[in-house]
Design goal:
homodimer; about 325 residues; alpha/beta; Isopropylmalate Dehydrogenase; 11-stranded mixed β-sheet; 11 strands; globular
């Protein structure tokens, strides 16, 4: 049996009330070995509600990282559930971490506790967005690294390809570089340099794509810097919400139909966003995640851990010091 | 009577078939003095259809800038309607230009033919996006300057404030800086430096806003670099389209209701996007604009020309050479 997935029991808006149920469901329904990290008393109380005391190991961690804690401060905090969880992955005692904590805190703690994969310059967050046409497009980096170099963007593309293969099951994913025109050479300084690097990589480079391609299913993977990616991700959520608000107010749609579309673009249903490029697997669940979402994130975490997501990067970039 | 607004008759997907009707409507319905620039024979033919030969002056220009022409090549082209139109504004013979040509071509021709306003470092494109709550938010820069400095972003904010006052009639617009977290200090290198400059300016700085604030009506003006702004603008259009496609396919909404929402976010109904920071006024209509949209763009152009949109920038930044 492979090493367990460690679930940060204290992360997220709901804490153990949802994360523990998620861990129990991951084990019972999906056969994922799990361990919970957090305040042992609270966590065991929740396990008892699911009749699962003794079924899932609990590692005690006294501190809780608040959802609004800046990343650097979160990493400096003592033995938080997030930090201890990352260290379990870093030490090889766990195969992956699932946390519904804040992305910034997870990135900081994971860099310290898990560490970067040998050849990777910076981690990137990958998230699968559903397309109007069916299927999904992986957006990478959705917010881990705000000021990447062109070389980092090229690595993000390789990480995104691995994610699309392992999580979405796309054998040979196409990759688009997010820019302001589809023609070659369109973009800012960063994308123009990244555009020169991408054709040399072992991936199917489609060329530049634009903002309207994000949900159009134009490509399987859209690569961008973490600043643009995070704004785009939140802009999708806000735009969907704005349209549904207008529709609900005007009464032109049935409420159940609106709820169905809202669910499709709810961050909860994206599955887990994966923080890629580390020496271990870290899956970021949305802060508002309920138990079923945590369980799904555990499945994604196991699949990513088994799949060796950073192998491609290691094959094509020599290890270099952190810039 | 003030100087006329010059309409680029050959710009846009439909050319004179729509632009000439738009110019006629601007004059007859809104009292905007106009002049048309383009192939005189074709333009007069269209004027005849509206019984308007002799009512509107025509300036001949032989060349047409193709919609997919890169900006720099468009400016190098001979006497195109776009270039001649810009020169009429630059010479003071026209108060403003309206074109439905490609943004890149308009920016290049306007920089050459109209020129930058004295203190302005770079132009910015401002566009009003309708909010779910009612009202609108000005997005600036929506795609004129891909790699601005922090000082340019600060100027874009002042230009956006003038646009919100003159076009939307908001007396004291609030300004948000588009970033990846609402807390101070969140962002990339560029936004963190811009965030330090904005509080010193004569505008109501709200602080950082995020991707989901673009359509939420959080602030009156959202300022960003032209790369991010262009991606966000197209991402809004694409996200709205994706939701409407899903709704139409699932049959949960009445088609007329869907059309109403689509119209609201159709680029055609935004009114004109304004290219701000030039020595004259330039309004960019969407390439797909029909006559009514061209007419509305002429009204916006006249109002902006009368209002002196760059005065605030001139008051607070000393003129410097182009960087």
């Amino acid at each position: 049996m492979s090493n367990p997935v460690v679930v940060d029991a204290m992360g997220g808006d709901h804490g153990p009330a949802e994360t523990v149920g998620g861990a129990v469901a991951a084990r019972r329904e999906h056969g994922v070995p799990v361990v919970l990290v957090g305040r042992a008393g609270e966590v065991r109380g929740e396990l008892a509600r699911h009749d699962a005391v003794g079924e899932i190991d609990v590692v005690h961690a006294e501190e809780i990282v608040p959802m609004d804690e800046p990343g650097a401060r979160a990493a400096a905090l003592g033995a938080s559930s997030l930090r201890v969880g990352c260290e379990l992955v870093g030490q090889g005692a766990a195969s992956a971490l699932v946390s519904a904590g804040s992305t910034g805190a997870i990135v900081s703690c994971a860099l310290r506790g898990v560490g970067r994969a040998p050849a990777v310059l910076r981690p990137a967050l990958a998230i699968a967005l559903p397309s109007a046409a069916g299927g999904a497009t992986v957006l990478v980096d959705a917010g881990a690294t705000s000021d990447p170099t062109p070389e980092m963007i090229a690595q993000f593309a390789l990480l995104g390809v691995s994610y699309a293969q392992l999580v979405l099951g796309v054998p040979d994913p196409s990759v688009g570089l997010l820019s302001i025109g589809s023609e070659p050479g369109k973009g800012n300084r960063l994308t123009r340099r990244a555009e020169e690097l991408l054709p040399a990589l072992p991936l199917r480079f489609h060329g530049n794509v634009e903002g309207h391609d994000v949900l159009a299913g134009t490509v399987d993977v859209i690569v961008t810097d973490g600043f643009t990616g995070n704004i785009v991700l939140k802009n999708v959520e806000g735009s969907v919400r704005a349209v549904l608000t207008l529709m609900a107010r005007s009464g032109v749609a049935e409420p159940e139909g609106l709820r169905e579309v809202a669910r499709r673009y709810d961050p909860e249903t994206h599955g887990g966003a994966a923080l890629l490029g580390l020496s271990g697997t870290v899956v970021v669940a949305h802060g508002s995640s309920r138990a079923a979402t945590i369980a799904r994130a555990c499945v994604v975490a196991r699949d990513l851990a088994d799949g060796g997501v950073t192998a491609r990067v290691g094959d094509h970039f020599a290890a270099e010091p952190v810039r």
